[in-house]
Specification:
Blueprint lengths: L11 E8 L4 E7 L1 H9 L5 H8 L7 H10 L3 H4 L3 H8 L22 E7 L5 E7 L11 E2 L19 E4 L4 E3 L2 H11 L6 E8 L1 H13 L3 H5 L5 H5 L2
Antiparallel strand pairs: 1-2, 1-8, 2-6, 3-4, 3-5, 6-7
Length: about 230
């Protein structure tokens, strides 16, 4: 992945609960910014995810599908370059954006939509990025989505603390939920360790990628932060 794509300056503080015997992250506790990070994963188009991680991304059949479209001759097999762009480099819907996007590279602000009527056959809608040549779409009218755009500061509201398990099941954090997790894992207290970490864009993308390929998103995504825990075994 490029430096541009990991250059965001997010800093999210987490408390990890780790099983010392195997270094597995059982859960992570964080505030609203942590919850927003995980929930934002649900807003990402698969094509854009593959675009971010590039050709070396291992997303199984989705990766193969993406590569096959990316390599198609746009003039021979697709109706337009804009159609190909919508598939291989889509952006987040404007209705889903936050006031302060966690992943600025996916901000829909650099995308415009244009429409034009084709006789009695209906409307054609064109998806164009800010730097695209707009002369290719002919006599079109730019669509204004401002009245539909309702950006929010957060996807969640109080309580302000949340807990997520290794497979990214998220819930509000309370003494009862914490006790329930301990009972669920049935692990002796002397085999547990807490570790406070700060994650940034690099770790966020790593968790996202791990979540698409395994049920151990936190353990695999934050593996480089867990080395000292494994050494204590």
């Amino acid at each position: 992945m490029s430096e541009v794509e990991i250059s965001g300056n997010i800093q999210i503080n987490l408390k990890l609960v780790i099983r010392k015997s195997d270094g597995k992250v059982l859960c992570a506790q964080g505030e609203q910014d942590f919850a927003d990070l995980l929930l934002s994963f649900l807003t990402f188009p698969l094509g854009r995810i593959n675009h971010i991680f590039g050709e070396n991304c291992s997303l199984g059949s989705i990766g193969g599908l993406y590569k096959s479209i990316a390599e198609l001759n746009v003039n021979k097999y697709l109706i337009s370059k804009q159609a190909k762009d919508r598939l291989v480099s889509p952006c987040i819907s404007p209705q889903l954006k936050l006031t302060k996007p966690i992943f600025p590279i996916l901000d829909p602000g650099d995308v415009d939509y244009y429409r034009h009527y084709v006789g009695n056959f209906g409307i054609h809608v064109h998806f164009l990025k800010a730097w695209d040549d707009k002369s290719s779409v002919g006599n079109c009218t730019r669509l204004n989505f401002s009245k539909y755009e309702t950006s929010h500061e957060s996807y969640v509201k109080g309580p302000s603390m949340y807990v997520a398990t290794d497979d990214l099941v998220i819930a509000p954090l309370s003494p009862i939920s914490a006790l329930g997790l301990l009972n669920r894992f049935k692990i002796p207290l002397n085999d547990l360790k807490e570790k406070v970490v700060t994650i940034g864009m690099k770790e966020a993308l790593s968790i996202l990628k791990a979540g698409l390929t395994s049920n151990s998103a936190l353990t695999n995504g934050l593996a480089h932060l867990l080395t000292e825990v494994k050494e204590e075994k």
